[in-house]
Amino acid sequence: MNRKAISAEDAPDAIGPYSHAIRVGNSIFMSGQIALNPKNMELVSGSFRKETKQVFANISAVVNAAGGSLQDIVKLTVYLTDLKNFDMVNAVMSETFQYPFPARVAIGVSALPRGATIEVEALAILSD
User: Residues of 71-105 as b/e, b for ≥16 C-beta within 10 angstroms?
Assistant: First the structure.
């Protein structure tokens, strides 16, 4: 198996011993992203919507660094500290992605790194 680490300059630095993503063949396995601003490594605050938009901007930066785009994402796993925010996730996703939308699961969790309220991991498949 040929594994290649992906590092995205426009995404926040990893806050632990992990890669932004690992590429195996045409598959891009992306680590979870929280709403860290890549310029100052501060958590975006103000609203859940702003956090969610930053998370997807970070995911976009990672998939772009791997040579793909948001349209190459086939699966998302969304972790939420409050499932009442589920509808806002849907709203931001409808603005961020085009049909056909990625498959997705949303999971309620008690806490996330750095006090984030949302974390999203993704799987993308790049064209040959």
Answer: ebbeebbbbbbeeebeebbeebbeebbeeeebebe
Residue by residue, pLDDT tens for the chain (128 residues) are: 799 999 999 999 999 999 999 999 999 999 999 999 999 999 998 899 999 999 999 999 999 999 999 999 999 999 999 999 999 999 999 999 999 999 999 999 999 999 999 999 999 999 87
Residues 6 or more apart whose Cβ sits within 8 Å of residue 99: none
Beta strand 118-125 with 103-108 is unpaired
Half-sphere CA count of 115, side-chain side, radius 13 A: 4
